[in-house]
Amino acid sequence: MRKQILLSGIVSLFLSAASVAETVNFPEEIVPLQVGDKKIEHSFFNRVDEIELVPGVYQVKLKYTDLYEQGYDEHQVIDSEPFWVTMTIAANTDYDVVFNRADNAVAAEVFAEAPQVSLQVKGASLGTPLAIIAEPDLTSSASSQVATVQVAPAASTTRAAPNAAILQAPVSRPAPNAGNAPSAAAMLDFWWQQASAQEQQAFIDKVTKNK
Questions:
Q1: pLDDT tens for each residue of 84-112
Q2: From CA 150, how far away is CA 139, in angstroms rounded?
Q3: Which segments of 14-165 are extended strands (E)?
Q4: Once rounded to an integer, what is the mean pLDDT over residues 53-63?
Q5: Distance CA 132, CA 25 (A)
Q6: Residue 17: its pLDDT value, please?
Q7: Comparing C-alpha atoms, which of 208, 209, 188, 200 is closest to residue 77?
Q8: Do residues 25 and 95 touch, judged by C-beta distance below 8 A?
Q9: How far apart, in whole angstroms, are the C-alpha atoms of residue 50 and residue 23?
Q10: How high is the pLDDT of residue 159?
Q11: In contact, 99 and 29? CB cutoff 8 Å
Q12: Looking at the predicted structure, is the pLDDT value of residue 58 above 80?
C-alpha cells in the first residue's frame, strides 16, 4: 500500500510539473537556436517551431532567415547573425514570437543587420518588443530550464515532413503575402542549402525510395 501511495505521489508530481509549461510559437523566419545553455537541434526533416517553457525568465538565442524571389527561378536568402533576447514567461499563457516582415530583399537585409522581434500573448493584437542582449554567461545561469522542446510541422507543404514519432499538432500561422511568397522550387532549394551532407543524402534516399 505504501508503495502504491508513493508511486501515485510521484506520478502526480510529474504531471503537475509538466502541466505548468507554456508554449512559445515561432514564425518560419525566426529560428530558435538555444534556451540558456540548452541547444535546440534542427534538421532538414525536423524544424523546431515551438518550445515549452515553465514560467520564468529565459535568455533565448534566435536567428532570422528569410527567402525572397528575385525573378523567374531566382531567389535570395537573407540571414542575420544569431542574437540573444530575454523572454519572460507567465503562467497559464501561450505566446507567439512576431515581427514585421520586410516587403523586399533590400529591406530584409537592413532588418537582418538589427532584427526586432516581439513576444505576443496568443490571441492578443500587440506584442512586447524583445530587446537584444549581450551573449549571457551561461556557466552561472540558473534560469535556462526548458520543460519540453517540441517539433511541429511547418506550414509550407514544400518542406520535408517531421518525424512521425514526435509529430505535434500543426501550428497555425497567418497566410503569407501572395506577392512575396516564394515558389515551391525556391523553398525546396532554400532548405536543401541549409541541410548537411548527411541530411541531403537521406533526402535523396527517401525520394528515390518513394518513386
A1: 999 999 999 999 999 999 999 999 999 99
A2: 25
A3: 22-25, 30-35, 38-39, 50-53, 56-71, 74-79, 83-89, 95-98, 117-121, 128-130, 132-133, 146-150
A4: 94
A5: 19
A6: 46
A7: 188
A8: yes
A9: 7
A10: 38
A11: yes
A12: yes
Q: What is the pLDDT of residues 151-172, one digit of tens each?
A: 454 444 333 333 322 223 333 3
pTM comes to 0.62
**CA-CA distance, 206 to 211, in Å (whole number)?**
9
Helix, strand, coil: what percent of the chain each, to 5? 25, 30, 40
Q: Which three cell numbers stand for residue 134?
A: 549581450
d(CA 64, CA 32): 9
The number of residues in the chain equals 211
C-alpha cell of residue 135: 551573449
Q: Where are the alpha helices (DSSP H) in 20-126?
A: 105-113
Within 13 Å, how many C-alpha atoms sit on residue 64's CB side? Answer: 24
In this structure, which amino acid lies at residue 147?
A
